[in-house]
Amino acid sequence: MPEYQSWTFPHIPAELAELLFQNDEKLVVVGVIGKSAFSDSNKMVAMGVLDSHPSLLDHQPQEGTIRLYYNRKKSMLLLHFETTFDAACMQKMLEEELAEDAYGHFLLFNQRVRNRFARMLLFATQVCHIIVFVELSVTFDASLLMIFRALKIIRDKYILKFLPKLVKNSSTGTFLGKSARLCSPRVLFLFENYPDGYEKTSECISKLEFEVEDSIYKMLRNEFIITNNSAMSLFSIPSNKRFVYYNTDPSLREDPLLKSITMLQSFLQKSNFKEDDEDDLEDLRPFKGFGKPLIQCNPERTQPTVEEMFLKKRNFMDLLMDHVDEALQIGFDDSSTKFKGKNHFVILPAKAWYETFKMLHRIFIENPDNPKFEANDADYKAYLENFNKIMDIDDEFFNACCDIGLQKAYAMYNNPTLTHYSSTVHKKLVEEAVSLYMKYARGTQTVINETKLREMCERCWRNGKQQCEMPSLRGNPCVLPKHIVKEPSEHSSAHVFISTCNCGRTQGRREDPYTMKHANYEFYEYMANNCNLCAKVKKVHFPVFEPSINDYRAAEFEIAFPKLSIHDSIDFAERHDLRSPDSIDSDECSQPLTASQGTHTNLSLVSTDELDKIAVDDGDMHSSEESLNELVIQVKDKDAQKEEEKERSIYRQPSTTEYLPGMVHTESPLGLLPRFPSWSLVCVGPSSVYSHNTGLLEHFQSGFLSGANFLLPWDVHVRLEHSASWAYEKTRLRKMGEVFILKIFVGCEYECPRGHRFMMNSPDKVLRGGSGILRDSGSKIVYNNMPLYFPCPCRSHKADVAQLMRVHVVTPKAPVNVILDPRVRTGERDYIFTMGLPNPPKLTQSAYWILRLPYVYQGDEGPIAPPTEITATSAINYGCLLAGMFGVSETEVDD
Asked: CA–CA separation, 319 vs 525, rounded Å?
């Protein structure tokens, strides 16, 4: 019969049960619990109770397994607990949670590992006389103090209330007493590893063990885990016996299979054996000299030293048996001498103990693991509900840290000095609050409280601190608190710009517009009332909507007036015998023309690329640079002119019940007019007000940057079929055969939000002084698309975005009219903005005209905000004034 007979609870062999229970032998119960880093999770190697090495046993570790080892001769029963502190059990638990997607947070997993170990340790203190705690490191794990302290609280608060009631009716209830356990178990600490740097001598080993004992005792006393009355302690520490043991045998956990394989590999690597190598085989012999002739055996034996004998004889089982013998003889009384009470210690017969063991196992292990279990006893139910809460004391600490961080972070966000702010500032403050919170936050509630903080900040912002942020027509948000408005003009972005009146003489401050009427009409009407020149200038009136009923409304394109493209509009006019301005036949002109009512003929200058494609009837004309600007005017008689006027006067009458909600463009429905004009065309005086030597003076046109206040000369070559009609002007015109040269001054003016104005020398270059203006420089801006936006040269870094606001034209002193037909394209949109006039306006001769473009453009999708940043190379991508806006027609001459 082996010295130790073992089985796994609850499967006890029948013959072993008969042997154990027949004599009712009293046994000292020793529990072995702690940590193991090996795959077998066995901590019994140091006890010397195993028949073979643990790695050779066919055993799969499982958390909660209890293995019992019975030694009849020593009257001792060893309990080996496999817990989550064993590496193999912890790994298996982690793999199961990962497979079930129940891992969650590391701290939650750590709590589950610690709580299950604590439950098993608490159970061990109820059924054991001695507990051997196996430690892998060379020092005591101070984190165990928190577990011991929590179990002490649970025992005092719950177990001493419900457990005596539950075991009272059992056969051993009277023996267990008020504490409902065998005794206050004595704990021994077994350290499997010896610290490096310490000599393995009896003196050093004893000194180390005594120091560790003193350290452990002080820590347990300071945490009140052990007290003067051992019966009220979680466990006890012997006052006059050793309870710490350091293993000094490095081969204790050495795997014999791996050792044999290593030795075999070393032998296989040798080519042959010599006599000198015989010593290498000694490790494989059962004893020295085995398998050798007696004559070769060395009869001389070296005597081991005292220290070697000490290390060889040193065994943990000797220390354990000292405590077992004391338990069998007199029992344990580890209370302090100051305590005068009676000590409780009982050794139950094997059968009675086993029944008690099964009952307590059900109370402490099985019932808590059963989610469907419902306790009848209120105290026992409170224990089951509050066990994890008390054990997770660090989680409570982390939650308290999160609460403190949450309060500080929210207090920082809810700054009373900030009455209202935008969403951008709100997001910045939230991130700052979260950053402050994360300095305090720890534990499993970190993410939950972060979400809560964000919700609190969002609620605080929306309940009184939210800024309106309604974007203006130029994309700037309203800075007022969240409010309900009846009119868009009640918003305010707090942006103030410098803008110029229609004539360009007076500059004034303007608020960021929220309505198209304020942007393109009301401000300029206000400036006209405060400008001396605007009240005197000659104006071109633009057609606007005039209602005939009170309940007029904006037209709905998709329902009432489907959008028509330019070609669809022409087809519509032809089917109804209507002549639109763009549908006039131009057979009598030598170039593509734009019609103008009441003229003999009219000419529209197009880009150079288009002019190259024009077919010229006169075969004797030579292709030269001058011919690009040459126009042919054919003079008609009065009868033909009147007949043409009669045909052109037939237009669709505009609607008086519905108005155009946006601005006029090429795809706007026919017969709809806007409620107000977005363009302005004024004559500010005769051509003599402009001097090419001095440019535009400040008293006449204010706000221009130095050197950028000049117009560009543009020479237009005109050839008439009946040039005699210009005989009275021949003294003023340079005659080149049948070709006359007209000098027109033009300029594209840009204005930035700071009120700076400047002219452009070309589509990608700002005008830099009058000396750089060459002959016919104006053709660069006449025959090319001019960008709608351009960076203002007033700043070297992050320049303001200037907008094309005016076109200056100084007409020549000749019997001709300059025609304006501006067309603006914004971005990549298909439609093109126009002035909305039935016929392009004629500019009188020898006069200074200024065309003011819209401040804000509104398409079918709504207002078009200008770009926030722009460069000279990318400016043309955001919009442009299309080339070919100028035309020339002969002035009418009376008979």
From this structure: 108
Q: Compute the distance between CA of residue 719 and CA of residue 736 in angstroms, rounded to an integer.
A: 9
Yes or no: say if 789 and 804 are a contact pair by the CB < 8 Å rule. yes
pLDDT at 738: 60
What is the rounded distance in angstroms from the CA atom of residue 633 to the CA atom of residue 814? 14
C-alpha Rg value of the chain to the nearest Å: 52
The CA distance from 665 to 678, in Å, is: 12
Spatial distance between the Cα atoms of 805 and 774, rounded to a whole number of angstroms: 24
| Helix (H), strand (E) at residue 204 | helix 202-222
Cα–Cα nearest to 818, from 540, 535, 579: 540
pLDDT tens digits along 632-654: 555 555 555 555 555 555 556 78
761, 711 Cβ separation under 8 angstroms: no
Q: How many CA atoms lie within 13 A of 404 on its CB side?
A: 10
Give phi and psi for 451, each to the nearest 5: -60, -40
CB 788 within 8 A of CB 881: yes
Taking the C-alpha atoms of residue 501 and residue 525, their distance in angstroms, rounded to an integer, is 8
Residue pointed to by tokens 């009846």? 486
CA dist., res. 575 & res. 580, Å (int): 12
Which pLDDT score, from 0 to 100, does residue 14 have? 86
CB 89, CB 83: distance < 8 Å? yes
Give the span between the Cα atoms of 740 and 813, in whole angstroms: 12
The number of C-alpha atoms within 13 Å of 95 and in the hemisphere containing its C-beta is 7
> Are the beta carbons of 86 and 146 closer than 8 angstroms?
no
Tokens matching residue 661: 């909600």
Q: DSSP readout, 453-489?
A: HHHHHHHHIIIIIBB---B-TTSPBP-SBS---SSGG
Q: What angle do CA 880, 874, 803 make, to 5 degrees?
A: 45
pLDDT for 752-780, tens place per residue? 999 999 999 999 999 987 766 777 788 99
User: Distance between CA 753 and CA 800 in Å, rounded?
Assistant: 7
CB 248 within 8 A of CB 199: no
Among 597, 589, 595, 585, residue whose Cα is nearest residue 631 = 589
- Predicted pLDDT of residue 305: 80
pLDDT recorded at residue 558? 53
Question: Is 502 in contact with 682 (CB distance < 8 Å)?
Answer: yes
Low-confidence spans in the chain with pLDDT less than 50: 559-628, 727-737, 894-895
Distance (Å, whole) CA 590 – CA 583: 17
Residue 791, SS3 per DSSP: strand
d(CA 57, CA 54) in angstroms, rounded, equals 5
